[in-house]
Amino acid sequence: MSKTKFELINVVAGYRNTVVLSGVSLKITDGIFAIVGPSGSGKSTLLRLLDRLNSYDSGKILFDGELIEKYPVDELRRKVGMVFQKPILFDGTVVDNIRYARNSLNSDEINNLLERVGLPSDYIERKWDELSIGEAQRVCLARTLATNPEVLLLDEPTSALDPTATRTIESLLLSLVPKISLVWVTHLMEQAERIGGQAAMIYRGKTHWSGFAKDLKLADDEIVKKFVSGELK
Ligand code: ADP
């Protein structure tokens, strides 16, 4: 039985003069949860609310049944890690970047993290600018895993990668489940189908559809049909 990790209740959020989410209600269950929808529909904005990278104007967000604001931000971000579209590393070695998340990591723990993301242990001293983009994304993932998160928020984590690296990162992420839950934003219908699990479609600032990802293509709804066919991107 899946458990609700996050619950959004009538959430309104956006930027200075723009309302992006105009009253989103959604239960995000543990395991794999895809947030789909065309570009510009507010998926990233929604995801960023779950780690308090963005704030919202009204409504409520619960994490494990508690108001999200009850968690100190650093505790929340340890439990809920984030991986972005493009790998963001700072000037330094792989180990410097990973220790940034948890300074106390010893070399066995670092090696273990590298192994989990499929990088050889001799990468430890490699400089950040000597990595391919796929390798850099793995280092970002290792850094996120360093705090032992319960949930990973994934904001189009493969969109900067070539098809081979995309598949590798996809299977790596899926192998973390069920120990770690994934909330995976994608505008790609094929990716939503590949990753499976539960899904919700955000469209024009609201939850337009929710169900199993595999049922998206069966939905009797014009907007979902356009998204599935690629007409709405
Ligand atoms: P999606 O992830 O579905 O592509 P986003 O949440 O990134 O959608 O964007 C939703 C809307 O919010 C878009 O119209 C986008 O231009 C706008 N937006 C996103 N980030 C910002 C920002 N930092 N400042 C102002 N507007 C933004």
Description:
The protein has helices at residues 43-49, 73-79, 94-99, 107-116, 133-145, 163-174, 189-195, 222-229; strands at residues 4-15, 18-29, 32-36, 58-63, 66-67, 80-83, 151-155, 181-186, 198-203, 206-212. The radius of gyration is 18 Å and the shape is globular. It has a single domain (4-229), classed as 3-Layer(aba) Sandwich (Rossmann fold). The protein has 233 residues and is α/β, with parallel strands linked by helices. The longest helix is centred in the middle third of the chain and has 13 residues, at 133-145. The structure holds adenosine-5'-diphosphate. Adenosine-5'-diphosphate binds at residues 15, 18, 20, 37, 39-45.
Can you give keywords for this protein?
233 residues; 30% helix; binds adenosine-5'-diphosphate; 6-stranded mixed sheet; Rossmann fold; alpha/beta; 4-stranded antiparallel sheet
| The top level CATH class name | Alpha Beta
Integer count of domains: 1
- By DSSP, the count of extended strands is 10
Radius of gyration, taken over Cα atoms and rounded to an integer in Å: 18 Å
The class by helix and strand makeup works out as alpha/beta
How does the major sheet shape up? 6 strands, mixed
Low-confidence stretches: none
CATH hierarchy: architecture: 3-Layer(aba) Sandwich
Look up the CATH topology. Rossmann fold
Provide the CATH superfamily. Answer: P-loop containing nucleotide triphosphate hydrolases
